[in-house]
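Worked Example 4.2. Consider the chain below.
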Amino acid sequence: MRILKHHRKEGFLHVKADAPEDLWLLSRLIGPGDAVKGSTERKLKLGGEDDRNQKVVRKKMTLTLRAEKATYEHDSLRVLGTITDGPDEVAKGDHHAITIQPGDELMITKEWQGWQLNKLQEATERSEENIIVVLFDREEALFCRLTNTGHDVLSRIKGEVSKKGEEGVSVSDFWKAIARQASEYDQRYQPRSIIAASPAFWKDYLKESLPEDLAKKAVYATVSSTNEQSLQELLRRPEVKQALREDRGAQEDQLVQELLGAVAKDQAAYGIDEVERKANEGCLKTLLVSDSFMMQERERGDFVRVEQVMKAAEQGKALITIVASKESMKQLDGLGGIAGLRRW
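Applying the procedure from the previous section yields the following structure tokens:
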């Protein structure tokens, strides 16, 4: 995410979304009534209604919408609303949808809350930070990319395993294949770190095959298996905590684990009613809100209450986090989708 221009007093913000994660964040920050301006295409009729040669063409233009709904799907941000400003041939008040993809710019005018601006600033600071993970043994390697919203599976590759009674079959080429694939993803995504994790001692073989430039950014860890479920285990491993300290998924998991510990000690508030009371009292030091809970409340038309709770928590100097990684979100949803650690 890049903030190109910001007028705090006017509530105007001009941003460029560099990655799908940026679009996801914007979909959570844009609300009903916000003014959203961006480049789009719209169908226009050329000629009168009675003109036999009337044509319908698609024309690229810049429109401003009064947002009604913002959604994130298929790595795109879609803002639906009514047109408030645009070329003369476009009728004000008509419905339209602006679709934003990575690399596009967007202008948003609204009454920004402090926590929203903080999330945007965090996105600008970590826009170049992503992590490649390879979970492997001598039979299989699973490549994933950690993102702000969880992880994406990039590929799986298989190794040739010596069968009982079969001699002369080597797995050395498999370590080289893993190294080649890691090099390809390093060039494509330019990750901050590459985490190589395996059961037992298999990672020691990979160390010998990695080129020098990859070896410098590699972090080695031990996991019990090579499936996707091992990613959560991996995030808790002491040898990778330093490499993951800026990663959103790791931060969310750490906060949720801290929350669960506080619940066990009766030092937390959870559920919208209790959290609202504690936020208004100013006794929350951390507020966690599930992304699925936010979307649910928007669909129900009750999101204004959630925003008011977040604003009250912010005024009480609470750290506010939107939890979107799959496993952490599931745990938070089990507590009502919104929870906070109390100061007292």
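The CA atoms of residues 261 and 267 lie 8 Å apart. Residues 164-169 have pLDDT under 50 and may be disordered. Compare this with Example 4.1 before moving on.
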